[in-house]
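>> received
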Amino acid sequence: MVRKARLRDQRSPFPRGRLAFFFVALCASFPAISGDELALAVAANFATTIEKLLRIYPNAQRSEISIARGSTGQLYAQIKQGAPYDLFFAADVQTPRRLIDDGLGLSASAFVYAVGVPVLYSPAGKFTVDALAKSTQHIAIANPNTSPYGRAAVEVLRASGLWPAMRARTALAANVGAAYTMVRSGAATLGVVALSQVLDAGEAPGAYRHLRGAQVTALPQMVVQLARAKHNDHAQALLQFIASRAAREVIQQSGYGVGVP
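>> returned
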């Protein structure tokens, strides 16, 4: 789905005085840019966080910014088919590297912008692994064929010994955002989702558990500037902002580890 980023009338993640400090500092650091549009392809888990970031991005009001959200695999396929995106915020590092190998991404632009944390989530409250195996009717996960979070979910279930019992009760969602929606709506009693999604729910009831003891407990997520946008100053300026201290703090507050540009 492609839609224009909403940049107004949203609550800031910073206290007012701190936001003012960061905004003044950022405006001094980033040159004014005008004119072009900027199209972002964003993995579903990061869609809400990128909107938070755009609300404090100094150049946001100087350009038309659109966001396409979906699974990493879906967005990769669209880019391969010629979709006119400028930046790709993937939920892994392998997919941007494939684009670079394909000549569709710029190697020098790529860096890990966040480290995603998959968690086991139940809106009903506290749960145990033993009770999970016996009582869960359906567990929602993102499609492992297109989503890094889906692949992590399968790996976690296998590592915990639950996969044989849960496989027939697994509900596949198009992406991790859809998996979270399935759990929140009651269509599934449990889900493997991103910690950022649970934290975004604020005061919504529920409980989550970090996926300990599995081979995958964190997902480095890489951004890459696409080759078609090689001369797009907007894309380069946004990447510079994503690597800034202010942006990294928002990313961390949103439930991610921060990468190292």
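>> Residues 3 and 77 are 19 Å apart (CA to CA).
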